[in-house]
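name: query_chain
kind: protein
chains: 1
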Amino acid sequence: MTSSIITNRIRSVSDDDEEIIEFLMRRNRPRVFQNRIDHINKWNDTEFFRRFRMKKPTFMYILGKIENTLSTAKRITSITPMQKLLVALRFYATGNFLITAGELVGISEPSACRIVQQVTYALAELRPDCIKMPQNVEEIRQVSYHFYKIAKMPRVIGAIDCTHIRINSPGGENAEYFRNRKGYFSLNVQTVADANLQILDIVVRWPGSVHDQTIFLNSKLKTDLENGRFGNNLLVADSGYANSQHVITPLLQTNNRVEEIYNESLIRTRNVVERQYGVWKRRFPILSFGFRIKLETTMAAIVACAVLFNITRTHDGEEPPDDYEARNFILEQEEPSQTPVHANSNQQFTARNRLLNDYFPSLLDGNGQ
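structure:
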């Protein structure tokens, strides 16, 4: 299409039709193929880790898991699976605009958008293999043993909590459901962590206005606990959850030394999920800065970041860079505790009550310490 034809078309539209004008002009732009950097060979291990939040061997391991899904036709200008994964990782690592992630490997913003979406869903499909509660008696024993070593809390197989992930307003008549109590739009994401900060379970579908307890009550995890899948083992939680046969929370007020020991043990044990959120968000700062992509892809991206987090915890071991700006932003976004869930009439039958009566008194020595 010649420039004169485009000019004539532009003159024929209203001055208010800026989107149409931009579209017509964009169609006539010549395609430009930028040089693409070989980031694997360009950076040493430290610099690569800083930019992509994982070591090179871990990157290659993840690439091997999703390479077939990301493969494209073999053309000179085609974007390789390796480049696609680099773009997505850079997007997760910076929490920046897609145009910035695309420029990293020399591709356009529309291409970066499609690539991030493709990689995100490919990574999210790894969830069944990478995010799972203990599957058998031996795994349950190992998880509870590591929790016991923290502060002698018995039978714990996970620490549960929720965190808010900032999103753009999804629009529509239900948009306000996503506005949380701090006034911004978010998803309230529930995770369960083990003593090594691995994510054992994740729920990513609830608006920011929904209470933590509501999310748990409607989760498959609650059903599994009640059906005896994990025996008589427990989750530790904060006061935003209700005490039950399988969930224990701190006492809001202590009256004796046994209750003080119980609270201290539970708080130290439950702290792993708070640490998990801090390390998770430092490794992938987009979880703190927020997502500017459509809601469905955002949900998948949060799961993808959880998958990547578990893989890097297993393969890297190294903590993510302590970026000063990202750390301060995370601290500023910390949510206050939710309104405590009041005890119900069957409180005497909860696991917490049994621990207070039968287990924690035995930890006291003759001096009451």
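note: DSSP finds 17 helices and five strands in the chain.
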